[in-house]
Amino acid sequence: MTQNTNNYKIIVLGSSGVGKSALTVQFVQGIFVSNYDPTIEDTYKKWLEVDGRRYLLDIWDSAGSEQLLGMRDRYYSEAHGFVLVYSITSETSFQDAQNICNEIIDIRDRDDVPIVLVGNKCDLDDEERVVSKFAGARVANYELKCPFTESSAKNRVNVEEIFVEIVRQINRQKVITDDKVRSGSGRKWYRRLSKCYIL
Ligand SMILES: Nc1nc2c(ncn2[C@@H]2O[C@H](COP(=O)(O)OP(=O)(O)OP(=O)(O)O)[C@@H](O)[C@H]2O)c(=O)[nH]1
Ligand SMILES: [Mg+2]
To answer: What's the number of domains the chain is made of?
Structure first.
């Protein structure tokens, strides 16, 4: 029996060392990579079932945002959805994630881009946390207007949930865009896709 499939390109973005590769490898291969090997660019494919439908995800694990340079515009324009990662142990990475989000919205020139904000390394809660869960949720809710979760690539906390949510965001955007095309309304009609919630 043939099944309807969808192929979505998802890019994982954020500062160096926040755990983009660890999250991606944990999601795709089910293992935690404890050593740090800075990424240039890696791509992965994985099937994921979301709400009864199968999706083939092309996941681009990018270099830290400090190293993106010429790749940035290509990434921002080609991806269907963005997983924006910071580390709860780094305030700078939290600021960086907010800047990246605003850059994506500027380059795409629309504010309903599918984005999920992720505070990774939540297993380091007791010892090293500097960004509170409240601060992450507040920024997602009131400023970036996207879903938010904390995760741990190490303990596989909320890893699959991140990718399920980005697929749902992409699907929601498709519905909104199709409705807009049908009704012929202008581009600035768009609103952000959903309110923030903690996964
Ligand atoms: N405790 C803990 N460590 C993590 C977690 N995720 C990643 N790390 C560690 O943080 C370091 C950096 O992780 P990477 O996944 O390589 O970071 P990255 O964002 O891909 O870094 P770049 O490729 O340089 O941009 C590694 O030593 C990981 O093992 C996590 O959830 N918890
Ligand atoms: Mg990496």
So the answer is: 1
